[in-house]
Amino acid sequence: MKDGLLWAPDKERQTHTLLAAFIRAVNQTHDTQLSGYDDLYAWSVRQSGDFWQQLWQFSGVIGDPGESVCDIDPEHPNRDSQWFPTARLNYAENLLKHAEQYADQPAMIFSGEHEVARTLTWRELVDQVAAIRHYLDTQGVQPGDVVAGYLPNLPETVIAMLATAALGAIWTSTSPDFGVDSVLDRFGQTEPKVLFTTDHYHYNGKTYDCLNKAQQVVDNVPAIERLVVIPFDGDRPSLPAGVDNWQDLLAKDAPPLRFTRVAFNAPLFVLYSSGTTGKPKCIIHSVGGILLNHLKEHQLHSDVRPGDRFFYFTTCGWMMWNWQVSALASGATLVLYDGSPFYPDAGVLWRLAERHQITLFGTAAKYLEALEKQGVAPKEDYSLASLRVLCSTGSVLAPEQFDYVYQKIKSDLQLSSIAGGTDICGCFVLGSPLSPVYRGESQKRGLALDVQVFNAQGQAVEEQKGELVCCNSFPNQPVGFWHDTDGSRYHNAYWNKIDDIWFHGDYVRLTAQGGMVFYGRSDAVLNPGGVRIGTAEIYRHVNQLSEIMDSVVIGQQWQNDVRVVLFVKLAAGVTLDEPLKQTIKKTIRTQCTPRHVPAVIAEVSDIPRTKSGKLAELAVRDVVHGQDVTQLSALDNPASLDQYRQRPELTE
Which Gene3D superfamilies does the record associate with it (predicted)? Predict the structure, then answer.
């Protein structure tokens, strides 16, 4: 392994990528001589308008692109410029554009913990979208109205979203593991007109009822006029009067599917921030911005093409659900899974990959770490010949997990450690099928995004740690926040540090190869003695120890300074004795620096995480300092915070 190089595509593979075809198209159209990713990236930032216009044509977007590519705001060209200001299109029309050509081929394949697959063809998908659109029409849903899903990751969830988008309305969703209060924090703000839910769902071998929680949501959100129930297992549920059964809606005659074209910047999705410091922000994303950006990220960065099998382990409360669904626009078959990734055993997702010949497998970094801890080696038990791309996101992918992927999953694979988030419903940093993978690095910055690293003085730096920023405008910037009439919440979230520069909140380093190394969230950075330390640097080494199942680290205010405090969840049968503490400290001191070594190490039985699996570092920090965590409902396991209150170790 030379200089951390883990994988590089061979010449034949590079030549046949969509990215290579796109470069050829740019060279022909614009009389350029671009060669390779770095050339294209530099051109796409310099000529971003030409890039997005070329992408519209290359990916075959259906719609009227309008007369101009970008209406540049003279005062705030990065924050307030409008992309494709006169364009008209429909998101669902573009996701279903391959349906006629591939009518009898699978559009979606669904499997749950029972591991019995259910397939929906493109023809069946269109027919069912038409039926649900017709139902929404009869309920008076109009462009601009909100329709919500309180749903598992089912094919019917995709259908309900596409029906909503087909008529120009707005879709928002959350997963059924959210409690009623969490759902009310979200849907209570966006006020949907129709709510789709399910009768029950399965997780880790258990069945959970959904109807009672859904009815409580309806009772507390006056805007909801109709509740529709989707049977999870296909059996007809017993429903109260006034509640509609999905099966009945499909049985009714419906006119052929129609698409209502709307403005490029019309709202399509409302996504929600985690909400750990207050009510979740309701982030509005546009029809054209989402479509164009996802086409870029799927086709150019991930080489997704017609006939591919596209899988992402996600719930409907995470933006990766929206990201996954857009792969239909590239002609890919969605492989959907709902349930635990470790039930009935750790092989459940890899059996799915083998049976359905998955080409892109997406997951969270924590899942890969858990597989490694359990000694799972998918390549030894499953045929993964079709697998070309593995995406990881949600948290920092440690260098050791890079090794694990290539040693235990597949050696000939594009490993894309992607990073962005709900804020842009996409990525600032992701993969390149033309470029090598280096250990511990995300491959490349996203095309047409002027992503840089700023130091504390606001200067762009390379090979130094700093803040991830974006210094230009891009189509998938949020339309704004719901009910943020003067735009102040939107401005304060991203734009208030340096005028007209997007600050994303990641602590990173831009490498000599043009890749990116992540060190954690910048608001969780530790600062002992004035030295900035990314939390991921500590997790990387502590979580590799066999005695440690998980950990969370914070900075505690202590004697006019900050000291590092590490909480660890131990493996079964392990005791946090002095020898283990010394092992932890020695590991951190050796692998990091003496500054990284925690002053206090304490044991807990659970580590708080958000519903999407992200560490709730700020919540732990607040509890340790005696401050209230205002939105406990944002956490998957809020009761775990009780263990962090008034710890005697933290007063010594």
Answer: 3.30.300.30, N-terminal domain of ligase-like
